[in-house]
Amino acid sequence: MTSLLVFLGMIGGPQIIMIVVVVLLLFGGKKIPELMRGLGSGIKEFKNATKEEEKESTKIDSKKD
Fold first, then answer.
1. Structure confidence by residue, pLDDT tens digits, 29-44
2. Do the Cβ atoms of 17 and 24 come closer than 8 Å?
């Protein structure tokens, strides 16, 4: 994570505002909520899949003992 921050430099308020403006220009105000919903559902699916893998690995570990 620190290597990413070093690569990007220190991100401050003006840089964040510039990124937000560029995103608004590229996608428009109506498209951004759809993109965020899609991103949120993708993260939720990833978390669920991770939890399922952990449950399966604990079941396999408990069967070995």
1. 888 888 889 999 999 9
2. no
